[in-house]
Amino acid sequence: MENKCVFCGTSFRVPEHGELIANHEVLDLTDKLTDYDTNETGTHYRFHSPDELRTALENEVDNSSEEQWVKITDGTTDRTYSIAVNHLYYRLTSPEMADIIHEGAFESHLQPIVHMSDEIVFGYEALLRTHDRRFNPGQLFEFASKAGLHSMLDQKARKSAVEAKSVAVPTGQKIFINFLPSTIYVPEFCLKHTFHLIEKYNIDPADVIFEVVETEKVSDVDHLKNIFDTYKKSGMKVALDDVGSGYSTLEMLTLLKPDFVKIDRSYITDCHKNTVNQNFLFDVIARAKGLGITTLAEGIETEEEWNWLKEAGIDLGQGYYISKPQPYKELATSLPS
Question: Which domains does the chain have, with CATH numbers?
Fold first, then answer.
């Protein structure tokens, strides 16, 4: 089924052969694809393989923008799919990653988050992993952004995390789900799919915590606050990720009032002996406590880091020292029957 909202990505596979339809002012490939004709709908360029089309577009991407759209058809029906020129090109350069996103060929691995005070599991973060492990999440999201598939990937990743919660994380324990603010254009509309899944799987909204992913660069704070407010109105919690890195300054705690703050791992590494990191951590703990925000240290890798953070008053901990992520289906087998 094709996505109804164009922002979620054009849901189609580039055919093995077909036609690219474009107006000359958008794209002129007459010197590269010689099999074409022109009518009132534009120039119809016939291509005989994805590689032929990719080669024809190679020098066009730099001069293109997301506003320059063309149409693609397999040549056997009247149905066409609209797509930006640069998005089409990147899908042609990495068809394997495009297939992974279209097919949802990934799953959630879960990493535990524990109370620092008693080491009892508070919840889990859902981390995306492809089935064949050929690509890491960073590669997949970077490609998706260039190929116009980042909204589709983000939505499907959220779906995978919700499903993992329903199978492997007991009621009362939380699931932390990453999201990209740039893929959520109108929160009340774009998040309906996710909210429907939470209801479908009979998950308590209070067990769901949405966090901004570390790679996202937020320029519109009001938009992010609107997203946070939409989650909260639906009974869910929100987390600000990587505080101390990039946009996630301490001032954001006051502006956005998240329920949780995850501290950038660069401040966790060697925190037991790095006084600069310690001063920053004490500042975060004090500000968060004053605002009623729960602190979470991620990336804990040693006993020394754990002990210092516990003594300093961090609420929750996450990292390889506690446990590595594991497939949610494996975690589910350890649940009491």
Answer: 6-93 (no CATH), 103-333 (3.20.20.450)
